[in-house]
Design goal:
alpha+beta
Length: 125
Amino acid sequence: MPDEESRIEALRTAERRLQAAQLASDVTELDRLIDERLVFTGPDGRLYGKQDDLRVHRSGEQTLTEVTEEELAVLVDGDTGISWFLGTLAGTLAGTPFTARVRYTRTWIHADGGWRLLAAHVSSV
């Protein structure tokens, strides 16, 4: 098992890969990074799964034009990681433009040699 500092850096890298994949609507990369069991609590309070996330990117229903990270904190305990992202997202959702300053809390698991997103929550700040 890699030491804690290398796991922390690997989690930061995974978080930033996720941000880049969201910005590019890179469904292949999102598929690699997101666990099949994902539960995402959206800004509307509803729960979504991995296929919901991939669908909005694949269909163009959601398109991001900006993902600006202001702050990123991470915590690793064994094969579990938590990331806290604070930043601004902009784009369109269902044809409606938006800009939002948000906080994501994401729970990751280390499996098959890399970090995979298991659960997430977003709220406006």
